[in-house]
Amino acid sequence: MRTIRLDAGFRLDDPNSYWGNPSFQLEPGDPGYVPPSPTYPKHKKNPHMAHQPYLPKDDEGIKTLLMTFSMGLTDALATKYAITPEQRWRLKRGWLAFEHLLNLSSIYGEYSKALTTLRESMFLDGDGAAAMLAPPTLPAVPTLEPVGGGAAVPVQVEADFFDFLGRLVAQIKQADVYDPSDGNTLGIIGAEIPPPPVDIKPMPRARIGPNGKPIITCKKSPFQGYQTEYSRNGGPYVKDVFSSSRECEMDAALPPAGTVEVWRIRVQYRLNNAPFGQPSDPIEIDVRGR
After folding, report:
1. Which class is 205-288 in CATH?
2. Phi, psi of 93 (to 5 degrees)
3. Looking at the chain, which residues constitute the CATH 2.60.40.10 domain(s)?
4. How far is residue 15 from each of residues 8, 40, 52, 151, 271, measured CA to CA in Å?
5. pTM, two decimal places
6. What is the pLDDT along the chain (290 residues), one digit of tens a residue?
């Protein structure tokens, strides 16, 4: 087991790396060590461009994704990514079922609003009476031919369908032959997250922890983390801990017992193993020796 240090060639996506306080990497012979995979994807995605999750947060977006994925998964792509006919059939069934449920929800939603309006009219002044609303006419349940052929049958709702969907997406993206252009065709690549501004400045907070040392709290996403440094009583800045989590305790030694020092603390983000943006404005905090 090795302690992870900055600028030492450690990869963020290495399954043997554990990021925290402290950060460490497992080595051959350590419990839980994952040996290198001979099928590690050869087509590397751009590591500098982050994306949102592929699954939208709204129902209409999910419906569009399922339609795009199902219709875009041609015979050629299915062969390329070893997608079975049953998997393609389950994907299409899930799309049709989800779309049908959305249609029913919309129809019943409008009908419910109309019933509410009619009921409320009973409390208002007026003359005469209105007819009771008839139930809406519902669309037929979509049908789909079985995998082996035969008469089409009404689609059913598959329990935990989105777990199946996630595994299907992973099967494609983790394939040796994966091409991001195929991901775009299938709609399984989320929107690009714009890079942070190059002049971004962290806004940390500091407090004295139970051990008498300053505890730094700083938002770190989407960065690897942040580097802390401090100045004692106006002296030069000295680097302290690097934190890959939101909160960390500084590592510097406390002042001599019975004395108080004014520490000026600042942090700077790191991205792709290099400093990013500007250092934060200094925070002054009194640190007492014990």
Report:
1. mainly beta
2. -60, -40
3. 205-288
4. 17, 12, 22, 48, 19
5. 0.60
6. 566 554 445 555 566 666 555 666 777 766 666 666 544 444 444 444 667 889 999 999 999 999 999 999 999 999 999 999 999 999 999 999 999 999 999 999 999 999 999 999 999 988 888 899 999 999 999 999 999 899 999 999 999 999 999 999 999 999 999 999 999 999 999 888 788 899 999 999 999 999 999 999 999 888 999 999 999 999 999 999 999 999 999 999 999 999 999 999 999 999 888 999 999 999 999 999 99
